[in-house]
Amino acid sequence: MKSTQIRLAARPEGEPKDSDFDFATVDLPELDSGQVLLRVLYLSLDPYMRGRMSSAKSYAAPVELGDVMVGATVCEVIESRADSLAPGDVVLSYSGWQSHAVASARHVRKLDPESAPISTALGVLGMPGFTAYGGLLEIGRPQPGETVVVAAATGPVGSAVGQIARIKGARAVGIAGGPDKCRALLDEFGFDAAVDHRAPDFAERLAEAVPDGIDVYFENVGGKVAEAVTPLLNRFARIPVCGLVAQYNATELPEGPDRLPGFMRQILTLSLTVRGFIQDEFIPTRQADFLRDMSGWIRGGSVRYREDVVAGLENAPEAFRAMLAGRNFGKALIRVGD
Amino acid sequence: MKSTQIRLAARPEGEPKDSDFDFATVDLPELDSGQVLLRVLYLSLDPYMRGRMSSAKSYAAPVELGDVMVGATVCEVIESRADSLAPGDVVLSYSGWQSHAVASARHVRKLDPESAPISTALGVLGMPGFTAYGGLLEIGRPQPGETVVVAAATGPVGSAVGQIARIKGARAVGIAGGPDKCRALLDEFGFDAAVDHRAPDFAERLAEAVPDGIDVYFENVGGKVAEAVTPLLNRFARIPVCGLVAQYNATELPEGPDRLPGFMRQILTLSLTVRGFIQDEFIPTRQADFLRDMSGWIRGGSVRYREDVVAGLENAPEAFRAMLAGRNFGKALIRVGD
């Protein structure tokens, strides 16, 4: 069996270019006992992948040059040498940017296609949904009547943050790029207010949308959104930090003035909590609750989700660039195989 | 009865000048029922006072121009119209930079001169000691074997932070200015290591002093100390922020590059917790524990303290400048009356 792979060819400077990737078709090895042969159905594209393309120190090792780009996938088992899985089973895997893969059965999780669409294991019921749930409930801890602000709000993390905030009785204010996304925040996801970060008077509009200030800012973008949010924070506000997508493609140190002393002063005078996290730290304590709560909320209609599916593995580099730039509308997925 | 007062005459630009204060002698009003007449024995000088001299938004209102500078004091009651207090009693008050004051008996706390030297109510057994205790135990949460770093480490907050860290089984690394203070950290306060921030190779020495990285950085200074600490932080490190004395006299925005995006990235990739606090938020839950624990530790010899007493209210402005610049050696106090 052959696999078509997208490998990291060069460490991107700024936005990843086509030449930072190369395509190859390789023969997969024969299955060992306990292994399964997978055909990839969906590949998830997520902002953290930009970090893996870089050699800068981070919470996870970078992808080595020449290696297949990492990524979560939903796959069909097409051959099995493991008792727990049979051909036709659908599993969550971490097989990366390729069409087929060999994996240990112990490293995949079987999905139930009856209980939810299989693609949701990469989005609202997967890592992005759990990032929203864990970060908001463990760090943000929204109280009834408080105001929660999140950007990239039609994305898989942001849309879940806003909807969970409302379930907890808080007011949800979403930030997104362009009128279509802002309309979806109000009509589709039930946010209390939506603010377009492309508007020339964005900072003023955000201030108007949070008349009582901001108690929780769920930080997944950084950049100019964070700059507009900061003056509006209330005393004891909490800032879970799960991503900084606006700065992932930065190639040089940002110009001055140095805003760090001012931000530290604000942390001090407002007794702010700023807390970075990776969702996996909450798995032991929260994942079971998450799967139960989120499945129930989806069934009950209180959490909706949107997917942005691009067909064809070969389109992954361009779809990835589009996602970093906010040109996707919903969870970015590549439909790899039918 | 007359009181000699130091009033705020102008909002300081940078380091407070003599001309930012003026001296006056005023007649105090007759006592109302429930009030006491106080003779100030000790005035506490603390970095937060620099914030009160400024009109910038903060957690407390600024001192108005023409008003007596605020501050905690230990006083003798010389006349009383309150049942709870008699002449000769010693109390903790908040009567500010003056020699005498009228206060409501309900707004002062009677001290027991037998149980501890009365000046400690302004230091190790007062607000600075409680800042160390509350911030370290509620936010820093040092675990046995972890490394705790604190600057201004011979000061009333820093010395308590290091000693409490050791009581909790952590390794305490203190930063101070000059060899005398560093020696005191090791010989007097029992820190595991001391680093002189005036050394030209300060950053390298700090790195050597924390071979296992930093788990808790108790932030009370900011500036170049924070800059040297940041690259040494471990995953899940905690940073309680109680002060930023190095930047209190700053008059303009610091030059670039803008370090905020880099710090946010570090918060994200290391899952850091940065949490500003004012000690009073912990009073309801922790103050009783603090008074019991700290008194016991002082009696048992596991917590020591050092005071830097300057005689004469007229020297308060210069002593305050000296404290902001780190020229004091221990808790800064003005001996106002004998």
TrEMBL record, chains A, B:
For this UniProt record, give its keywords in alphabetical order, as a comma-separated list: Oxidoreductase
Which Gene3D superfamilies does the record match to this protein?
Medium-chain alcohol dehydrogenases, catalytic domain (3.90.180.10), NAD(P)-binding Rossmann-like Domain (3.40.50.720)
Q: Which InterPro entries match?
A: ADH-like_C, ADH_N_2, ER, GroES-like_sf, MDR_fam, NAD(P)-bd_dom_sf
* Organism the protein comes from: Nocardia xishanensis
Q: Which domain of life is it from?
A: Bacteria
Taxonomic lineage is:
Bacteria, Bacillati, Actinomycetota, Actinomycetes, Mycobacteriales
Q: What is this protein called?
A: NADP-dependent oxidoreductase
Concerning Pfam families, the annotation shows: ADH_N_2 (PF16884), ADH_zinc_N (PF00107)
Q: Which SUPFAM superfamilies match?
A: GroES-like (SSF50129), NAD(P)-binding Rossmann-fold domains (SSF51735)
**Keyword Cell membrane on entry:** no
Q: Indicate the segments forming the Enoyl reductase (ER) domain, all copies.
A: 17-334
